[in-house]
Amino acid sequence: MDDLLAFRAELDEFMRWHPASPLSHEQLRHFRGLAYYDPNPDLAFVLPVERFPADEPLVLMETSTGETRPFRRWGRVRFAIAGREVALTVYSDPDGYALFLPFRDATNGSETYGAGRYLDSERPGLEVLPDGRLVLDFNYAYNPYCAYSDEYSCPLPPRENWLDVPIRAGEKAFAESKW
User: Fold this and answer.
1) 3-class secondary structure per residue, 131-167
2) Residue 179 has what pLDDT?
3) What is the side-by-side strand order in the sheet with 134-137?
4) Residue from 179, 104, 107 nearest 144 by CA
5) Most buried by CB count within 10 Å: which residue of 21, 58, 123, 176?
């Protein structure tokens, strides 16, 4: 949990001070940190992966601006949330290196960003272990940059990654009332 809290503090500092922050000058004037759910160890998993064939065809994922971006379906994980069995598809870049897990859940539009949230292998929360299992820690789930500004084009979670159960972990919605 200390690693998670340290990561969140670093992320808040990035959002506040880094020139690549997606926040506008007006947003930064009032920024007090991102809103997060309390850490929930029940929403961190180590899971076997059903790998897709290496020659799985590319899929074009729609973005928030109507464009498309190519991804490869990398594998599927199955687990239980709120007593329900669910499955999510993990994607990779076209070359199969960086992993990406866009998802929607029952909190979108009320507690979390309406278009969905992400996990990826460039941050903590999504990692392949040496034995091939996947670390999937929703406490690191984050909003895409389009949650802060319409100037960004963000991949939208495909329908196969829409869950009808809540995932109350990670980053909450960014709203003016929380600045």
Assistant:
1) CCCEEEEHHHCECCHHHCCCCCCCECCCHHHECCCCC
2) 33
3) 44-47, 134-137, 126-128
4) 104
5) 21
- Looking at residue 177, what is its pLDDT? 35
Q: What are the average pLDDT values for consecutive 10-residue runs of the chain, which has 179 residues?
A: 92 92 88 94 98 93 95 97 95 93 96 95 97 98 92 95 97 67
Query: What are 132's two structure tokens?
Result: 């091939």
Q: Take residue 36 and report the two structure tokens written for it.
A: 């997060």
* Among the listed residues 155, 161, 160, the one whose alpha carbon sits nearest the alpha carbon of residue 71: 155
Q: Which two tokens stand for residue 31?
A: 């920024």
Q: How far is CA 64 from the centre of its chain?
A: 15
Residue type, 4: L
Among 50, 52, 91, smallest CA distance to 70 is for 91
Q: What is this structure's pTM?
A: 0.93
DSSP E strands in the chain: the ranges are: 44-47, 50-51, 58-62, 68-81, 84-92, 99-103, 117-120, 126-128, 134-137
The tokens 């808040």 sit on which residue?
12
